């Protein structure tokens, strides 16, 4: 009987987690309905997910280099995208960062806008939504617009992250100081196998300067690797088993997307000790 409250608590947490997942999916579905409606010039479909008091705004830098804020009425937007167009209004969303509290939701989305097959511009949308009796409704959209560094195809995060990590290890193997430390964020942390080895990026660069003056700083080769990426595509984490001069090690790290590039926020290197050898190791390190 003493475990009954714990079971109830666990059940409540699971229910809450499922509710949050369902609400996130509902928010994304609302936003996607707007873009699906734009592709087929369906103003009725778009109007259905817009709050009557919704606002649309764009932040941009004009030709004189001055920041500007432009506003458009919701009725004008709906009328405009509802008119038949020679080329499809195709706004492709690459990621969703959704936050929800009660009946308020925000969604930060990376996008690229295409007219038919031709790329027009890209940027981010900042959505605000309100949950009404009829479901989620968009109450505000602010976007940015640019024509450079635009994504044109769905990113393969697994492939690009694997390539990034391999290049980072290769930079150490070729003593490429700029590439190795350039892959780490300025506040990145590297945890070595010794208890004293906790470096911030700049401190590590200073302490290991002599190692990078050689032809090879160190040469770790991955035997296997597991990578996971957050739903919004901004963060990733991985673990890997490495062949090293010390023997087999496990490395694990956290990545953050900075603009179009990944940066290492933390890396932890640990020596792997077989369970049947742990007593011998314990005697040595005590």
Give the structure's gist in a few sentences:
The protein is of the alpha+beta class and 286 residues long.
How would you characterize this protein structure?
- This protein is an alpha+beta fold.
- It folds into 2 domains: 21-144, Nuclear Transport Factor 2, Chain: A (Roll), CATH 3.10.450.50; 157-285, Nuclear Transport Factor 2, Chain: A.
- The chain contains 7 helices and 12 strands.
- It has helices at residues 4-39, 43-47, 74-82, 157-173, 177-182, 201-207, 278-285; strands spanning 50-61, 67-73, 89-101, 104-115, 118-132, 135-144, 184-191, 198-200, 221-229, 235-244, 247-258, 261-271.
- The strands form 2 sheets. It has a 6-stranded mixed beta sheet.
- A hairpin with a 2-residue loop joins strand 10 (235-244) and strand 11.
- It starts with a helix and ends with a helix.
- 15% of the residues are buried.
- The mean pLDDT is 92.
- Pfam families: Lumazine_bd_2, SnoaL_3.
- Residues 161-270 form the SnoaL-like domain.
- This is SnoaL-like domain-containing protein.
- InterPro entries: FrzH/put_lumazine-bd, NTF2-like_dom_sf, SnoaL-like.
Name the descriptors.
286 residues, alpha+beta, Nuclear Transport Factor 2, Chain: A, 2 domains, 6-stranded mixed beta sheet, 7 helices, 31% helix
């Amino acid at each position: 009987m003493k475990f009954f409250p714990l079971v109830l608590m666990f059940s409540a947490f699971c229910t809450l987690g499922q509710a949050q997942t369902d609400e996130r999916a509902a928010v994304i579905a609302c936003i996607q309905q707007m873009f699906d409606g734009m592709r087929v010039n369906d103003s009725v479909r778009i109007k259905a997910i817009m709050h009557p008091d919704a606002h649309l705004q764009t932040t941009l830098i004009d030709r004189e280099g001055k920041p500007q804020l432009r506003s458009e009425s919701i009725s004008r937007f709906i009328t405009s995208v509802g008119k038949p167009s020679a080329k499809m209004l195709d706004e492709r969303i690459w990621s969703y960062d959704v936050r929800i509290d009660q009946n308020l939701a925000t969604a930060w989305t990376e996008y690229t806008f295409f007219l038919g097959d031709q790329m027009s511009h890209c940027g981010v949308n900042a959505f605000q939504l309100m949950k009404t009796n009829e479901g989620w409704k968009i109450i505000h959209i602010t976007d940015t617009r640019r024509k450079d560094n635009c994504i044109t195809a769905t990113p393969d995060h697994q492939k690009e992250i694997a390539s990034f990590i391999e290049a980072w290890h290769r930079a150490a193997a070729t003593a490429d100081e700029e590439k190795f430390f350039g892959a780490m964020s300025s506040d990145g942390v590297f945890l070595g196998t010794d208890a004293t080895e906790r470096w911030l990026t700049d401190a590590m660069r200073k302490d290991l300067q002599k190692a990078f003056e050689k032809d090879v700083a160190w040469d770790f080769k991955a035997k296997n690797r597991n990578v996971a990426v957050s739903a919004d595509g901004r963060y990733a984490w991985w673990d890997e088993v490495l062949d090293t001069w010390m023997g087999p090690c496990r490395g694990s790290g956290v990545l953050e997307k900075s603009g179009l590039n990944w940066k290492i926020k933390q890396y932890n290197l640990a020596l792997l000790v077989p369970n049947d050898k742990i007593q011998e190791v314990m005697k040595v390190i005590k």
